[in-house]
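Ticket #4471: structure output looks truncated?

Reporter: J.K.
Steps to reproduce: submitted the chain below (183 residues) through the standard prediction queue, then opened the result file.
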Amino acid sequence: MQARSTGEPELLQAQRRRREQREADRATSTPSRRVRRRRHSPSWLQRNALSVAAASVLIAFLGLGFGLLQMLNHPEGSSPAAASQADVATPTSSPPVLQAAAVGAGVPVVDNLTGNDPTTSGQRVIHASSKVLEANYTVASGDTLVKIATKFNTSVDRIQAFNNLSDPRSLRIGTKLIIPPPF
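Returned output as attached by the reporter:
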């Protein structure tokens, strides 16, 4: 077979002949084709590895900067948490005492009872009181938490929280409820 003289170089003519041969083979062959396999794409982490590394370095620098800022704000080397733990660790037989040094140097502290500055007198006693809540309402026929809440100027959520009620529809007649103080 002699090549036509079309002015094309021999390499292009050979490529064209191969392409025409493949097209002719496809036309005469059966319609069953080979299924192309999909290339497996890399995972998200492999595709974005550089971004993940950059974000990690940024977070590390932010953490380092925050640590340095804390060291500059507390140059004596003791954190407020360490100071409060030291105060708790010292055994005392007297009532708990708040020391002005534990509060911080920039916070002015004045004793509300005497009007004196406790830093001059040394220590300030913390007075604690507790009140036991007793049930002060008995559920009657036809009562709902909404009715009770509006009657005592409070909310259903507060009544549920004070009485540890999981379901507001499970009220029983004769149940004693603690009614929280009004808003």
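Triage note (M.O.): checked the attachment and the full token line is present. Helices lie at 10-28, 44-47, 49-73, 80-89, 100-103, 118-121, 145-151, 156-163.
Status: closed, working as intended.
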